[in-house]
Every structure is written in C-alpha cells, then in structure tokens.
Amino acid sequence: MEKHQTIQKSIGFFPALALVMGTVIGSGVFFKVSNITEVTGTPGMTLLVWLLGGLITICAGLTVAELAAAIPRNGGLTTYIEYTYGKFSGFLSGWAQSFIYFPAMIAAQAIVFSEQVLNLLHLKDGWLVPVAFIAVASIYLINIVGSKAGGLLQSVTLVVKLIPLIVIIIFGLMNTGNVEVSLAPNTGDTGINFFTAIGAGLLATMFAYDGWIHVGNIAGEMKNPRRDLPLAIVLGLGLVTMIYLLINATFLYTLPVDELKGNLSAATDASQILLGTMGGKFVTIGILISVYGALNGYTMTGMRLPYAMAEKNVLPFKTSFMKVTSAGIPWFSGLVQVVIGAVMITLGAFDSITNMLVFVIWAFYVMAFYAVFVLRKREKALERPYKVPMYPVIPAIAMIAGVFVMVNTLFTQPVLAIIGIMITLLGVPIYKYKVK
C-alpha cells in the first residue's frame, strides 16, 4: 500500500505538461487539413474550427480530470461511466472502444501511413491496402514480442514526431509565400452553410485533438493535482492548439486552398515547396515515423481492453480473449482488433473512418461530462483532490459542444452516424446474454 501511495504522488508539473502534449499530438495534425478545408471551404473557417476544437478540448480535459482524481481506478472512460451510470453503460463504453474506436484508429493510422509510403516511393494506388496491412501486421508482431518492445518504439517516435512539426512551422514562418489568404471566418461563395461547416469541421478536428481523455489519468499520481493539473491541461492543450494553428496556417499560406481539399499528402506537398525535394522527403520520413508510433500506441493500449472485459466475464469467448503470450501480452484480443481494423481499411477512406469513431466516442465523452454534474449532486462527500474550475460553466461548454457535433453529424452524415450507432448497439444482446 505504501508503495502504491509513493507511485501516486511522483508526478510534478513539467512531466504532466509533457504527458498532456505527447498524448494529444498525433497524425491528425498532418492529415486532417484535407478534410477540414473540404467541409469549411475557406482558410478563415479552417483556422476557426482548429481554434474552437482546441478550446473545447481544454474544457473537456479540465472536466474529465475531476472524475479521474475522484475515481482513481484502472479503465479510464469505461470506469467513470460504469461508476456513474451502472454496469450496462460501462459495458457499452468498453464495447464501443474495443470494437469500434481502437480498430478504427488502427485502420486510420495505417491508411495515412500507407498514403505517405506511396507518395514517398511513387508507388501506384493499388499498393495502398497491402502496405497498410503490412504496417498493421508489423506493429502487432512487435507488440506480441512483449510490452518492452512496444514501449521502446513509443518512446522513440514520441520525440521524432515533433521534428517535422517544428521544421514545417519554422520554414513556413520564414516563407513569404505567393498564396493570398483571407482569415475572415466565413464560407465565402462556396455554398456551404456556416453552422454545417462548423459542425463538420469540429468533427474532423476532434480526431486531431483526441487523446485528451488520458490526461485525467495522471491526476492521482501528481504531487499537487489541485494546483498543477489544471495548469498542465490549460498550458499543454493551449500549446497544442497553438502548434495546430501555426502548422495549418503554414499549409494555407503555402498551398492554395483548392490544392489542400481532399489531399492527404498536403503536409508532404507543403514541405517540398518550403524545403525542396530532399527536405520534403526527410519531413515525410519524420511524419511516417510519427504515424507508425501512433499506430503502435493505439495497438498497444487497445488490446488490453477486451482482455479486461473478458476478465469481468462480459464478453463471449471469454477464455479466448484472456489468452496471453508467455510475456503476458493478450494476443487474441489484439488479433481481433487488428482483423476488424483490416476490414475497415478495405471498406472506408481515412476521413469516413475517423469521423465515425469521433461520433461514437464523443457520445460516451458527453456522458462523462454529465457524470461530473451527477456525482456532484449524488455523492457530495466523495473525495475530490481536484475540482474542475469555473463549475458548472466549463463542463457545460464541453457537453454542449459534444452534443452539437453529434447532432450535426446525424443530420449531415446520417449513414456514417447510423453505422456507428448500429455497431455500438450490437453489444446490447451480447450484454443481455452474458447477464442471463
């Protein structure tokens, strides 16, 4: 018990700040500009939704951190929802993460990794799916070797992924550029509705900002969470927002908006204009390493969740999901997620997959935001080492923004939303069967 307490109180402000930024910055910053420019229509609206996405993410991180500090148990989002709403809601959250969120994240990272490999090596489009499969299979095999191998890969790529960002921003700021950009937050003569553009744009940016949910998990391990955690979240996510705004401004000032729309190689194209052919290739390699690291992170963390659910006896084929290697790696859970991810790679494009996973996971995020209100009323005596500042304003902003994004998606991309809902609801009969 003493050892556990020592571990809990070991994190100071700067390690917390690094964890916040390292968790959030991923592949979305390089590849979502193509989708955002497509749905917003103009540079001004593109930068506006990146800013709004950052502000919403800060509110979300500050809110969920209260739950993490008050309920310091393993399981993150699933644990908060189960504690507040009961086992059924907790199961659905775990189901959605295990069989939609993590496989979709794996598929999305593999697709953008493959896109960049094809771009770098000038391969034909027919190679897209095979290269994506190879990337997923190699990461799975690395993690099967043991957690040390996956952890080492994650540590290396964490440092490497900042290099292309810094290089693009520095050279972008030095570049005068020939592209005229209006920063007025309107959709111009694109024929796109203002609120539809905001909703669709936020859906896309939320993928790039995703990862903030893990920020609260460090609350119980901090020396002074009441003082340091809100500061680490606001400063860390604020810096991430600033980096995202700068790099997207660089893209917009380097390439005409029409060349950014639907272009998953926008980061590479901008790098080649700013740094020349060889410089662009080095940046692309940096981006590849970054995406490979993100793919590793989601594979490594994702495979633990079905195993944990099988331990609670809420999944069919319990004994299979609990199978581990000699190194203690839940290989069958990982294999199921990799197979689902492979199916998603063959069926959908990057933006369709990421938009579906954001829609599904934000339904549970909104439940987590509302849990703060529920527990404040229901369990007044619950020990809260950290409380969300400006309550109830900040949790309300996070919740309203999440509902807006989901409702907008239902109206503007109903097929995508319905598929996400149906896959989530597939878990209901399984839960009922296991309970009986």
Automatic annotation (TrEMBL):
A Pfam family of this chain: AA_permease_2
InterPro entries in UniProt: AA/rel_permease1 (IPR002293), AminoAcid_Transporter (IPR050598)
Membrane topology annotation: Multi-pass membrane protein
Location within or outside the cell: Membrane
Major place of residence: membrane
Keywords carried by this UniProt record: Membrane, Transmembrane, Transmembrane helix
Entry keyword annotation includes Heme: no
Transmembrane segments: 12-31, 47-71, 92-114, 126-145, 152-171, 191-209, 229-253, 273-295, 328-350, 356-376, 388-407, 413-431
Protein name as catalogued: Amino acid permease
Species lineage: Bacteria, Bacillati, Bacillota, Bacilli, Bacillales
